[in-house]
Amino acid sequence: MTRNKDFSSYTALVTGASSGIGLEFARQLAARKVKLVLVSIDREELEQQAEAIHAEFGVPVETRCMDLARQESADELYRYCREKGKTVDILINNAGIFSLRKITDTDPEKIETMLQLHIGTVTRLSRLFANDMCNRRCGYILNMSSLSCWTPYPGIALYTATKAYIRVFTRALAYELHDYGVKVTVVCPGGVATGLYGLPPRLLKLGVRLGVLMPPQKMVRKSLNALFRGKKQLIPGLFNRFLIPLAAIMPTRIRLIVKHRMLDE
């Protein structure tokens, strides 16, 4: 059972760790006595959360403020860990952004940011740290995709396409690294009650009560359990699994209604 495994010698690198799902990954790993390297673009919040985690769980926590939407960021982060003597045993590629807008109305800079953050940086970080893990014949990589990778709806074309890349890339990577003892998991959650979507707290609480949104604590707990057990893909929540075939057969007329109601008004 993974709950009895001793993780005190492990170090985890978590991206997008200053809030939301990334912060919850950091907290639950710290509860398992994993040492942390936390990365975020928000320096003040990152340092505050790192201090709080260290005070609560007593594990070493280092922070690195970085914009991971730059092509060179993965190499810089990897080099930083090497220079600091950090052996990354667990890599959590969580950093991401969301956009609800027609692609023709999306700023070109926003497009490049999402492509680099979700595809370029995830790929490079996975490759760099996987190489070290293969040499040690041990390690864990978790990449965050989304249930939306099966739902190409109007307004989230770019988001769903990049998340679909993460899913396919991670599934293949899991097979490539299997013989080296490295476990790789992709997580495809539905709605999670975090600030990613810009919803006010009262709507987040309502979404949880209605079962539309999953609390981040529950989602992260399921994700870590899947990772440490060697599960290649996790879709948290039985209801979410039913949504995938329904999305595939949704008529074009319904998709156009979504477009007209949400994007054209």
Write a short abstract of this structure.
The chain has about 260 residues and is of the alpha/beta class.
Query: What is the makeup of the main sheet?
Result: 7 strands, parallel
Shape, per Cα inertia axes = globular
Structural category: alpha/beta
Q: What are the secondary-structure elements, in order, as H or E? A: EHEHEHEHEHEHHEHH
- The helix content, as a percent range, equals 40-55%
Radius of gyration: 18 Å
Report the uncertain regions.
none
Mean pLDDT: 88
Q: Count of DSSP E strands?
A: 7
* Major beta sheet, strand line-up: 3-2-1-4-5-6-7
| Strand percent estimate | 5-15%
Helix count from the secondary structure assignment: 9
Distance between the termini: 52 Å
Commentary on this structure:
The chain is an alpha/beta fold and 265 residues long. The protein has helices spanning 20-31, 43-57, 73-83, 108-136, 157-177, 201-210, 216-228, 238-248, 252-262, and strands at 11-15, 35-40, 61-65, 90-93, 139-144, 182-187, 233-234. A 7-stranded parallel sheet has the order 3-2-1-4-5-6-7, sandwiched between helices. Helix 1 runs parallel beside helix 2 and helix 3 runs parallel beside helix 4 (108-136). 38% of the residues are buried.
